[in-house]
Amino acid sequence: MKNMKQLFKFSLLAAIALVGGCKPELEDIGPAYTAGEGIYGTWEVASVKQVDLTQPIPESRDISSFFSADPSRRTQINFSKENNAYTIPQAGALPKMLKTAGTWTYDTLPFPSQITFISEANDTFVAPLHNMPREIDQHFGFDLTRKDSCGTIYLRYELDFKRIN
Q1: Whole-number Å distance between alpha carbons of 111 and 3
Q2: CA–CA separation, 46 and 20 (whole Å)
Q3: Taking Cα atoms as reference points, which of 165, 161, 140, 164 lies closest to residue 48?
Q4: Which of 24, 52, 77, 164 is deepest in the core (most CB within 10 A)?
Q5: pLDDT band at 138, cuts 50/70/90?
Q6: What integer best gives the mean pLDDT of the chain?
Q7: d(Cα 90, Cα 51) in Å, to the nearest integer?
Q8: Using an 8 Å Cβ cutoff, are 44 and 141 in contact?
Q9: What is the pTM of this model?
Q10: Which residues contact 74 (CB under 8 A, 6 or more apart)?
Q11: How many angstroms separate the Cα of 110 from the Cα of each of 2, 33, 37?
Q12: C-beta of residue 54 within 8 angstroms of C-beta of residue 60
């Protein structure tokens, strides 16, 4: 019985030493990309969902086919690194809330959750981000909202953009 206990202890110690001695090899997974740094460049609307917030359960409708049917309906936006400027070279058929140019900024770095647009007319528009684009990302998106005369949000556009430059 004593030999069995010693054998068990020895086997247990050997198993612990064997498992503890195995360390996974860490391999380089590639370059680190800073969240939000990939926004610079030109983006074109790829898909749009329209959400009616006046319903007890908000209704969502994919209206992307309207934009894909005619290239002139697709909104394009260019984000510049210089002075955090944006321009809209092609307004497309989306609401013109962002005007044609202005500046932009993230709310919190290094992990932004929304982007603020300040147009040349000094209108401010805050848009929640769907994701924070990195240099390697080909898609990113944000929401645009419509308000009634009392300031209540009644409609949300969920925009997804694809990188074109």
Answers
A1: 60
A2: 50
A3: 161
A4: 77
A5: very high
A6: 88
A7: 24
A8: no
A9: 0.77
A10: 44, 45, 67, 68, 90, 92, 93
A11: 61, 11, 9
A12: no
Question: Which one-letter DSSP state was computed for residue 129?
Answer: B
Q: Could you give the 3-state DSSP secondary structure of residue 156?
A: strand
Which parts of the chain are beta strand (E)? 41-52, 59-62, 76-79, 85-90, 101-106, 114-119, 124-128, 139-147, 153-163
88: region left, alpha or beta (phi > 0 left; psi from -120 to 50 alpha): beta
Cis amide linkage into residue 110, ω under 30° from 0 = yes
CB 88 within 8 A of CB 98: yes
Q: How big is the CA angle at 54 (ends 145 and 149), to the nearest 5 degrees?
A: 60
The one-letter code for the residue type at 37 is E
- Any residues with CB less than 8 A from the CB of 142 and at least 6 apart, and which? 114, 115, 127, 128, 129, 130, 159
Amino acid 144 reads L
Q: pLDDT at position 96, please?
A: 86
Smallest CA-to-CA distance from 45 within 106, 92, 112 is with: 92
Q: Which domains does the chain carry? A: 37-163 (2.40.128)
57, two tokens: 């359960």
The helix or strand, by DSSP H or E, that contains position 120, with its residue range, turns out to be none
